[in-house]
Amino acid sequence: MNHKKRIIVSLSICIPLILLTFTEYYWQQISEFAPPLGITALLILDIWVIGKIIITLVTIIKKRRTLSFNLILPTLIYLSTFIIIYINPSFLHASYYQPKIVYRGCYEGTVNTGIIRFRESGDFEYLHSGFMAITTFKKGKWEQSGDTLLIKYEDEIPQFVGDKLILTEDKFIKVVDDSLVSDRAGFYRGYCKGLN
After folding, report:
1. From CA 137, how far away is CA 2, in angstroms rounded?
2. What does the DSSP assignment read for 80-130?
3. What angle separates helix 34-62 from helix 69-87, to the nearest 10 degrees?
4. For the whole model, what pTM was predicted?
């Protein structure tokens, strides 16, 4: 394969990988199978890039006596893509450009995880990932009155979260018909801890 084709191939692998990484915030919002497909595509491209790094490094070692910039460029493209993605600079993710999160919560069940985010802009997000990574995403607006968080959804209310939560120091307590629902399936405050 000539140098120009090698450069085009490296760009055609690395650009989609960077775009998929950047847009992860958006494709997680598509319910059902989009997130598992996105994650699968990311894994395939990651493995492909790692393989290409190894192959291009071997090529450089074999042709070290006649090195040229065009020979080295694909390796530089693969390596820089890999470094950019896995050093994980926040600017590479679309979520970095979203309004700041004021409160966040997580529920970790046996085979499912729920994440709630209350943003500074008044936006509310609920992402539920279940069996086989099938997801549900709900959006809405929220407002706070004392320790009570009121949520108005764009469409149906997810039963798991409800539309009214009491904020405590360490968790969110669901309120149904002005009664606290003290169940084991509550959201704790903060990031998910990987308990499931």
Report:
1. 46
2. HHHHHHHH--GGGSGGGGSPPEEEEEEEE-SS-EEEEEEETTSEEEEEEE-
3. 140
4. 0.76
Handedness of CA 91, 95, 100, 106 (dihedral sign): negative
**CA distances, 44 to each of 37, 38, 71, 75, 188 (Å):** 11, 10, 25, 18, 34
Task: Provide the token pair at 48.
Answer: 């492909």
Of the candidates 143, 2, 169, the one whose C-alpha atom is nearest the C-alpha of residue 71 is: 2
Residue with tokens 């008044």: 122
Q: Tens of pLDDT along the chain (196 residues)?
A: 677 888 999 999 999 999 998 888 888 888 677 788 888 899 999 999 999 999 989 988 888 888 888 888 999 999 999 888 887 677 778 888 899 999 999 998 888 889 999 999 999 999 988 877 778 889 999 999 999 999 999 888 888 888 899 899 999 988 887 666 665 557 899 998 877 6
Assign 173 to helix, strand or coil. strand
Scanning the chain, the segments in alpha helix (DSSP H) are 3-22, 24-27, 34-62, 69-87
H-run or E-run covering 162: none
